[in-house]
Amino acid sequence: MSSTCVVCNKPITGQVLSALGKTYHPEHFVCAKCKGPIKDNKFQQHEGQPYCDEDYAIMFLKKCFACKQPIRNKIIHALGADWHEEHFVCTVCQTSLCGTSFMEKNGHPYCKKDFYEKFGEKCAQCGQPLMDQAVVALDKKWHQECFVCQKCKQPIDEDSFSVQAGKPICSKCT
User: Fold this and answer.
1) Whole-number Cα distances in Å, 174 to 50, 145, 158, 159, 163
2) Which ranges carry the LIM zinc-binding domain (predicted)?
3) For the chain, does the N or the C end have fewer beta carbons within 10 angstroms?
4) What is the per-residue DSSP string for 79-103?
5) What is the structure's pLDDT at 137?
6) Which H/E stretch holds residue 116?
7) Local structure of 169: helix, strand or coil
């Protein structure tokens, strides 16, 4: 009993190719998109149709937000987008952000250090980013260790202090 090719509906005499529960003449088993021959049984299927690997990737795989290419392996989903693992990196320093906490600004990912350096408030004394708690005084923000008396350079840790030329002075130096 001969098989019938699902594409041309003619009997298959000779080599029969069986795939996806159907029988084909070998020359009729082609990619549903490009119509190119499927070689070495390397194909993907979608809704019962065979596709070469390249067309399947273009048509059905998620695309990386950074490079716009299909993602064939592990997908990183972050910031409402999909990324290749190697492309989910800090916008500034290019350090991988996979498996770490990160910050976001205008849809771009940043490591914590670069985010605060670029967008964070700066200490009134040293000018470095304020990444944790800050002392708020004199309408400015300071690192705890930078909020010091401008005369004796000792930390001001009491609630009352004086101000001279816009700088804090501890109660001992006033």
Assistant:
1) 85, 20, 14, 14, 9
2) 3-61, 62-121, 122-174
3) N
4) TTEEEEGGG-B-TTT--B-TTS--E
5) 85
6) helix 112-119
7) strand
Per-residue tokens: 68 = 């716009």
Domains assigned to the chain = 17-50 (2.10.110.10), 75-119 (2.10.110.10), 135-173 (2.10.110.10)
CA distance 133 to 93: 25
Question: Could you give the CA distance from residue 37 to residue 9 in angstroms, rounded to a whole number?
Answer: 18
Residues 168, 150: Cα–Cα separation, whole Å: 6
Contact 41, 47 (CB under 8 A): no
pLDDT digits (tens, 9 = 90+) for 144-169: 888 999 899 988 877 778 888 888 88
How many whole angstroms separate alpha carbon 145 and alpha carbon 158?
13
